[in-house]
Amino acid sequence: MAALRKIKSPDCIIVLLIMLIIFLLSYNSCNPTTETVDTGALKSQPPADKIVADSRINNSLLQLLRRTTMQDRTVIITMVGQEWASPGSVLDLFLESFYIGEETKPLLNHLLIVALDSKAFQYCKTVHPHCFYLSNTSTRYTKKKQLSLPQVRNKFWQEVIELAYSVVFTEVDVMWLRNPILQVDCLKEMTIACDVYSGDLQNISYVKDGGFFYLKSNAITSEYFKYQDMTRILFPDSQNRTLCEETVVNEELFETLSLRINYMEQDLYGEFCQQNINMDTICTVRANCCDDTESKVHDLKLLIEDWRSFTKKNSLRGSSPPYTWRAHSKCKG
């Protein structure tokens, strides 16, 4: 990734190593019969059938994961709240993109929609067969203390990973025009649509965050989330960073854990902050740079219409000139 700037900070490396050692020692002291995890090896988590769920809701999640999983135990996951879950909403356009995208409709069988509130959950059940209600007591990680949304997300991904399912996460305002899973490198722990310009530890001037990533379920990704548990206590503000930003700010940590990252080619994912999108190569487009939900929905509808026109023209004989899309009507980069 050409635009990604390497961050060199010896002090940061030392701090991270000390924190990691302390955490691993405390983890083993609480689990004396557990072997130390070899983060250099790709060890899979135990099969989900071997894990005993500790609550009725956790059993419900496990059943949904079994129902939506692909053959390689990968599940597509998105999260949505009530503001984006109603007739004609962002969620409707998100689902529509799967129906009109190239070879994306079958992926709906593997999509789990996680509702962040009861209204979103009720609406989800009217438009999609696989919905899960993530209340503050939905998982074994959030019973004792209220967590912020980024923390709840991390906890949920961690739970899925530890149930031995790999995660393809997509923001609900990401339109799937082609199958981005074909770009996943299954030999690496993470594949992410992400690029950072002029990034350093104190300031990240611009992040191209495609709102899409893949996390492989193994011991390495599990250790990463355990590290997140520790930093949540020591550095609460750090939990507001996206995974895309984490790959830059915590670059040394990923190297220490041997967590390998595959960055998607930039012409495969786009965003409304971006001025030009190549319809011939694009897989996903994210509706960011929008001031409000109304603007987001308006421009997503334009994108859907443009994609329909593009695919219709491509189906005709002969080549067509480069296609110009209109999605910058209200959302400006």
UniProtKB/TrEMBL annotation:
Has UniProt tagged this entry with the keyword Transmembrane helix? yes
Q: Does the keyword Membrane apply?
A: yes
- Domain of life the protein comes from: Eukaryota
Q: Where is the Nucleotide-diphospho-sugar transferase domain?
A: 107-300
UniProt-listed Pfam families: Nucleotid_trans (PF03407)
Q: What does the UniProt keyword field contain?
A: Membrane, Transmembrane, Transmembrane helix
Q: Where are the transmembrane segments?
A: 12-29
Q: What is this protein called?
A: Nucleotide-diphospho-sugar transferase domain-containing protein
Protein's organism: Citrus unshiu
